[in-house]
Amino acid sequence: MRARIVLVLMLSTTFVAGLLRLLEFPQRKETAIVLDNQPSKTKLSSPPTPVAEPTITPSPSPSLMPTLLPSPEETPITATPPSTSSFVGTLRLIIPVTGVRPEQLLDTFTDARSEGRVHDAIDIPAAPGTPVLAAADGEIIKLFQSERGGTTIYQLSNDKKLVFYYAHLQRYADGLAAGNYAKQGDVIAYVGDTGNAGPGNYHLHFSISIINDPKRYWEGTNINPYPLLHR
Ligand SMILES: [Zn+2]
């Protein structure tokens, strides 16, 4: 009987030892996982930098390239504002309406107009009959009655590269004729609402265009008068 009890005890102790071993295994495994995690953690912490670097460096360069490439293609379109800025400081214009101060001007160059057109000019509101002044020196090349512009004036710059256009005029200054030379500040007309200005919407419509041929003075590319007048 004793021997049996001893045997059972021995077996049970080995069983318990075995159980303990089994219990130890998961502990070892856990430590093994922890140990595995530590290098993997360092692996994880170190990769973000190399991973982030390639994603930052290659992605902007291909993504920027297409965005940078169209802009040179767009230069014919965007050529208008730079050409305006190229005249700022060199083209000394005056505001072509008596009594209007620079701070009163509004940039209406990109305003939409009928039939999908863009304004391409500046509108300077003023009371009817307010004197319209030559913005710069230059020859009056054309007095024209236009459906849209009403009573209008085309003036050629001294270098024959620019045309100043004055529209919606009430009337011309007395004696004004094509071929006259206007000095900057000379009264050439009076503010009105002729053409498509709208009855009672008294303002000067003033535009500046870069021309290739003075004989084809109406075919220029308009530049924004606002930065040239607002200074
Ligand atoms: Zn206008």
Descriptive notes:
The longest helix is centred in the first third of the chain and has 44 residues, at about 1-45. Strands 1, 2, 3, 4, 5, 6, 7, 8 and 9 form a nine-stranded antiparallel β-sheet that branches. The chain has helices spanning about 1-45, 50-55, 60-70, 70-80, 80-85, 225-230, and strands spanning about 120-125, 130-135, 140-145, 150-155, 160-170, 180, 185-190, 205-210, 220-225. It has six helices and nine strands; from the N terminus they run αααααβββββββββα. The termini are far apart. The protein has a domain at about 85-230: Glucose Permease (Domain IIA). The structure holds zinc ion. Zinc ion (ZN) binds next to loops.
**Secondary-structure-derived class:** alpha+beta
Uncertain parts:
5-9, 13-80
Helix content: 25-40%
Q: In percent terms, what proportion of residues is strand?
A: 15-25%
The biggest beta sheet, please?
A: 9 strands, antiparallel
What's the total count of β strands? Answer: 9
For the CA atoms, what is the radius of gyration?
41 Å
Order of helices and strands: HHHHHEEEEEEEEEH
- Going by CATH, the homologous superfamily of the domain at 84-229 would be Glucose Permease (Domain IIA)
Multimeric organization: single chain
CATH architecture verdict of the domain at 84-229: Distorted Sandwich
The end-to-end distance, rounded to whole angstroms, is 118 Å
**Small molecules held by this entry:** zinc ion
Mean of all residue-level pLDDT scores: 76
**Number of helical runs?**
6
What would the principal axes of the Cα set say about the shape? globular
